[in-house]
Amino acid sequence: MADKLQTLLKAANVTVESIWTSLFAKALEGKDVAAMLSNVGAAGAAPAAAGAAPVAAAEEKKEEKEEAKEESDDDMGFGLFD
Predict the structure, then answer these.
(1) CA pair distance 20, 31, nearest whole angstrom
(2) Percent of the chain scoring above 90 in pLDDT
(3) Which residue stretches belong to region Disordered (predicted)?
(4) Of 21, 27, 20, 17, whose CA–CA distance to 3 is shortest?
(5) Is 6 within 8 Å of 13 (Cβ atoms)?
């Protein structure tokens, strides 16, 4: 299968080291590639949405930490303009 991938890449005028085609062929060995390709649209949206939630949560935590730092200066009894 690695040879077929290398032939396909050459026909597309793409240069890839043979190690990558071998690794890709081994990763796909025993898999139903046609089924995976037909399900790409259905599975593609869920991981993207799931990936956005942790990023938003991390940004909120960062903002909360920054607000906590600003408030902690007031607790010490002095501020920027004292």
Answers:
(1) 18
(2) 18
(3) 51-82
(4) 21
(5) no
